[in-house]
Amino acid sequence: MTDTRAFERMELEGWSNPSIAQGYADGFARATQAVARHLSDAVMADANTRALDLCTGHGVVAVELLQRKASVIGVDFSPAMIALAQAAAPGVTFVQGDAMALEFADASFDAVTIGFGVPHFPDPYRGLVEAARVLKPGGRIAFSVWQGRGSDGAIGWLFDAVERFGDPAVTLPEGPDAHLLADASVAHTMLSDAGFIDAKSEVLATELAVSEPERLFDAFDRGAVRAASLLSGQTEARREIIRAELAERVRSDAVRHGAEYRVPVPSVITSAIRN
Ligand SMILES: C[S@@+](CC[C@H](N)C(=O)[O-])C[C@H]1O[C@@H](n2cnc3c(N)ncnc32)[C@H](O)[C@@H]1O
């Protein structure tokens, strides 16, 4: 069995850094807001919904659920993220906790949302089993992940640039593939094993907004954990080559919109029903 303790430490320390928390909230805002709407649609949130927003982060999904009059509890293990979420959604109860071992009773929620949290779990299956445990039968789960390596968008470009220009000796602590559940067949099998039925996945053409092409590098370097660790381990010269490569992709593939560049970063939303 894989020892994921170093991975778990990296994730917790990374997301607990206030500057990374703010960097993510700002750098990925355009995509996360769009996805929050889709997640809330997928769980059919309304005034009768008791919703649990796991990996709530800066509260972007919690805000959307609240706007639909759901009663919401947000959970995150990062105090820095909880502080941002509390400022964004004063009507929500936020609890510091680990999505791998939830403090809530069995069958106590109608909906579980997980916006871009599953890729950070040391054991995604265990996370889905916990979500199934706290959901009532017939309750709904919806989670989002980014399309990763090989995808035509910012994250695919990043991996491509790191593979081509990064130092292969810079590695990350062993953990699950961050983009594993972007594959619908893997996600649906895991959901079925965890106690869900009727799984569906949809690819969304989400985007990041950057003020200059060179800023795409900063979105990952200052607002992520795994990607930032891969980048921070590179020499300054290699970092500059990767920055220039990403900027080139923005110039050729992003759409200019007023003062900003809209950069494709496709995401996948998967939803299912608790059996
Ligand atoms: C990429 S952010 C996503 C934030 C937000 N949900 C969104 O849709 O943009 C991932 C969040 O998951 C949290 N997280 C990662 N692993 C966690 C775990 N095991 N338990 C609780 N929170 C976790 C991090 O602290 C971070 O706030």
Notes on the protein architecture:
49% of the residues are buried. The chain has helices spanning 5-15, 18-27, 29-42, 60-67, 79-88, 124-134, 154-165, 184-194, 215-223, 226-232, 236-253; strands spanning 50-54, 71-76, 93-96, 109-115, 135-146, 196-204, 207-210, 255-257, 260-264, 267-274. Strands 3-2-1-4-5-10-6 form a seven-stranded mixed beta sheet, sandwiched between helices. A three-stranded antiparallel beta sheet has the order 7-9-8. The mean pLDDT is 97. The chain is built from eleven helices and ten strands. With 275 residues, the protein is an alpha/beta fold. β4 (109-115), α6 and β5 (135-146) form a beta-alpha-beta unit. The chain has a single domain, classed as 3-Layer(aba) Sandwich (Rossmann fold), CATH 3.40.50.150. Helices cover 44% and strands 23% of the residues. α9 (215-223) crosses α11. The protein is globular, with a radius of gyration of 18 Å. Bound molecules: S-adenosylmethionine. S-adenosylmethionine (SAM) binds at residues 11, 15, 24, 32, 55-57, 60-61, 75-78, 81, 98-100, 115-117, 120-121.
Short description:
The chain has one domain: 3-Layer(aba) Sandwich (Rossmann fold), CATH 3.40.50.150.
At CATH level 3, the topology is Rossmann fold
User: Bound small molecules, which ones?
Assistant: S-adenosylmethionine
Query: What Rg is obtained from the alpha carbons, in whole angstroms?
Result: 18 Å
Task: Supply the helix-strand structural class.
Answer: alpha/beta
Shape: globular
Please report the first level of CATH classification, the CATH class: Alpha Beta
Tell me the total number of β-strands: 10
Give the distance, in angstroms, between the N- and C-terminal Cα atoms.
29 Å
